[in-house]
Amino acid sequence: MTLYLRHYWKDERLSFTSSTNKSMTFDGRLVKKIWVPDVFFVHSKRSFIHDTTTVNIMLRVFPDGHVLYSLRVTVTAACNMDFSRFPLDTQSCSLELESYAYTDEDLMLYWKSGDESLSTDDRISLSQFLIQKFHTTSRLAFYSSTGWYNRLYINFTLRRHIFFFLLQTYFPATLMVMLSWVSFWIDRRAVPARVSLGITTVLTMSTIITGVNASMPRVSYIKAVDIYLWVSFVFVFLSVLEYAAVNYLSTAQDRRERKMRDEMREMARSQSLPCTCGMSQTRTMLLDGTYSEADTNSLAGYTSGTMGPEEDMDMPRDMMTEKQPPGEHTVVHLSASSESTTTKKKGIRALNIIQNTHTIDKYSRMLFPGSYILFNIIYWCSYCLGA
């Protein structure tokens, strides 16, 4: 920060007689020959007086002994910032001035006109912050070894510009989350496409998180940008896990269907059950609801011969449901289970979503975007309205 620091005091030893009552102005060479306040900047890391083309010091003495001492200084001072709301944060920083040698009994420091003592250039702008307001205060500072000192404060309220972080952090993270949802519309059998898309989005989110943390101070608490990025990372990671679940359930379902077809084929061979192979028209009846259409259609894989008239005549009369036209037969599946039909139907409905992998993708298409939109509403309302 570069500023013009002006001191006012009265030293009667410097008074002089003037018929025109005009002041006298001197450069920095006279400063070494008179008394000047020994003001320094507390918590300053680096500060210096400009010396181009000469030392930027001006001393003006009035006839009654009043003195104006002005110098151009650049100060780099420390500011304790709270990054818990970064980058939606507002910081309060202060520049502190104090006498180095004189206590409050020897020297009293105060602002000449209060807040009006501060004036800034309207063209001043910071790359990351907007100066909302500034004001002055003063109080005593105590040192156990030397005593009490007057200390002056210049307090600044800085609000961080958010647009840069929207472009560099929030928008890319949001796009990566939306890109991970594309896998829900890709066929579950396209394993390379869905896996590569999921891994790419996960690695991209990891790169964004690493880049943001590399440019930030290493603090031990969670920042607002960390919450957004890690929640976005969780959404991307869950989309990968969703396909892992879909692929596993699809494989398990195919394995169960193959096993069921093999068991029914063996049962048909051992019990000489009629087969639907070669029938011109086949109708299937479900007596208790425990067999799905996939189970009944699995009979199409049997290689047994067609049922002739003799086999048709040997069937019990109570199993014949109706008189069938020539060439049309009805296959009746009987259940030997003692459980009630209602209980089994409820169990089948409960497992329908898990067994039908298309349903998992269908619900994910609505659940993932809806949850992420809800998170964004809560996030931006909490931090923007809270500020």
Automatic annotation (TrEMBL):
Single GO molecular function: extracellular ligand-gated monoatomic ion channel activity
Residue ranges annotated for the Neurotransmitter-gated ion-channel ligand-binding domain, each copy included: 1-161
Keywords: Cell membrane, Chloride, Chloride channel, Disulfide bond, Glycoprotein, Ion channel, Ion transport, Ligand-gated ion channel, Membrane, Postsynaptic cell membrane, Receptor, Signal, Synapse, Transmembrane, Transmembrane helix, Transport
Catalytic function, reaction form: chloride(in) = chloride(out)
Entry keyword Disulfide bond: yes
Subcellular location: Postsynaptic cell membrane
Topology with respect to the bilayer: Multi-pass membrane protein
Record-linked InterPro entries: GABAA/Glycine_rcpt (IPR006028), GABAAb_rcpt (IPR002289), Neur_chan_lig-bd (IPR006202), Neur_chan_lig-bd_sf (IPR036734), Neur_channel (IPR006201), Neuro-gated_channel_TM_sf (IPR036719), Neuro_actylchol_rec (IPR038050), Neurotrans-gated_channel_TM (IPR006029)
Keyword Nucleus: no
Domain (Neurotransmitter-gated ion-channel transmembrane) ranges: 169-380
Transmembrane intervals: 162-183, 195-215, 227-250
Any one Gene Ontology cellular component term annotated for this protein: chloride channel complex
Family assignment from sequence similarity: Belongs to the ligand-gated ion channel (TC 1.A.9) family.
Protein name, entry field: GABA(C) receptor
Classification lineage: Eukaryota, Metazoa, Chordata, Craniata, Vertebrata
